[in-house]
Amino acid sequence: MAIRTVEAGFLGRLPVLRRAEADPVLAQRKPGRRRLGPGRPIPFGIGIGPVLLVLAWVIGSATGSIDAETLPAPWTVAETAGDLIADGRLQSNLLTSLQRAGLGLGIGVLVGLVLALVAGLSRIGEALVDGPIQIKRAIPTLALIPLFIVWFGIGEEMKLIVITTSVAIPIYINTHAQLRSVDARYVELAQTVGLSRWEFVRRVALPGSLPGFFTGLRLAVTIAWLALVVVEQVNATSGIGYLMTQARTYGQIDVIVVGLVIYGLLGLFGDIAVRVSERRALSWRQTLGG
């Protein structure tokens, strides 16, 4: 009886809800109604959290709440970064890390996207590709590094393969899932108008998979830096990870923190770049994110 009463009340409100959706002015005139969505985006809101974190670090260091032997003060880290820039070590190692991460990310994105299209558009392709991808997904990258060292040595090839395989997984998972959720009506429409296989991929499949692709790309950017941190501490002779390994040997905590800050900033700016690209590519889509 209670369920019927709730259903009747909801059905009775449907005309009002439909009128509100059809009339933007009416939709805005809802005094006393609580906002359900997150609201409008805050300008530069993504920087508020990091700024507060740095502010807490400054206050903790200034008041002595944070032991300098455990975590150096921000001004000490900034001074150390200035010294590393002055002697050229920071720039050269940063450039090496950017090249490794960029190349591994680019190849991994391409591989993941191709595999997702093969598995998403063909049942045979899915049978061949999805199983191995899921197996790799369940195996941590750290567990594969000893095997990759045996197979490919300890040079740049091993480092690139580790980053590439790590990046390809989130691209594949999210793009494949989005491909499988493309509205069947679009597929039927493509068949009705007589689109070729390539036209269907270009006009329906690829645009329909973009939301999942960008979700995977955001994850892939972060994972690329995580994999870079690992491989640059395996017999590397250059890179930010190598710089941090040397600093650990000599007990230079300030240099280690400089490396961590750089990794964090690279990850943050990379995520911002992907989100900006996503907004432009998916400007037609209305979401709670704005």
UniProtKB/TrEMBL annotation:
Single biological process term from Gene Ontology: alkanesulfonate transmembrane transport
Presence of keyword Cell membrane: yes
ABC transmembrane type-1 domain span: 94-274
Keywords linked to the UniProt accession: Cell membrane, Membrane, Transmembrane, Transmembrane helix, Transport
Family annotation (InterPro entries): MetI-like, MetI-like_sf
Superkingdom, taxonomy of origin: Bacteria
UniProt membrane topology term: Multi-pass membrane protein
PROSITE patterns for this protein: ABC_TM1
Coiled-coil residue spans: none
Transmembrane segments: 42-60, 103-125, 137-154, 251-274
Location relative to the cell: Cell membrane
Family of this protein: Belongs to the binding-protein-dependent transport system permease family.
Classification via PANTHER family: ALIPHATIC SULFONATES TRANSPORT PERMEASE PROTEIN SSUC-RELATED, ALKANE SULFONATE ABC TRANSPORTER-RELATED, MEMBRANE SUBUNIT
Name used for this protein in its record: ABC transporter permease
Species of the source: Nocardia bovistercoris
Highest classification ranks of the organism: Bacteria, Bacillati, Actinomycetota, Actinomycetes, Mycobacteriales
